[in-house]
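Q&A log
Question type: sequence-to-structure
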Amino acid sequence: MKILRASDYKRMPWKNGGGETVEIAVFPAGASIEDFDWRISTATVASDGPFSIFPGVDRTLSILSGAGIELTIDTSEPLILDLDSEPYPFPSDKPVLARLVNGVVTDLNVMTRRSRFSHRVSRQPAPFLLSPSASLRFVLATGNHTIAFGSEAAELGPLDCLALEGEATSDLVISGGTGVFLIELDPDGGDNLR
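Response status: OK
Response body:
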């Protein structure tokens, strides 16, 4: 178990140069935006425009702050993601046009390269019991949270992330006034993105 602090995240330009992305975690370590197997990041979207294209990559988008964003993915009907929306998965190699609903939003992006990894992102209420699993898991805090494991405890601040890189041997209890995002990654191909 490792705590990743928001103050330590790496900042870099979007692939298309239209904004800034904040990298929470990436694999392999030190991978660029072109050659990652998986990547977890946030981004601030301040204007309408296209998303970067990532060939062979699946993405799930969640809204962390702001009124929301309207996405038009390829030729599909537009859809609106807001703070109440479930995390939304889509292929990142299709053209996506984004339009802000009412001002700037911050989003959570989870991306995996097909045939190498798959992922699941869910919104979980707090308190939340995290049972042992073989998946590589990350818990992104949306506020202030306490993680209890056995007789020990740790604190997460807003946008801090708990990384569980091996199979946990006991339950963790995550509590706090707001929910969290649970990100699960599996090295078993790209057919079970959900």
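Response note: The chain has two domains: 10-113, 118-186.
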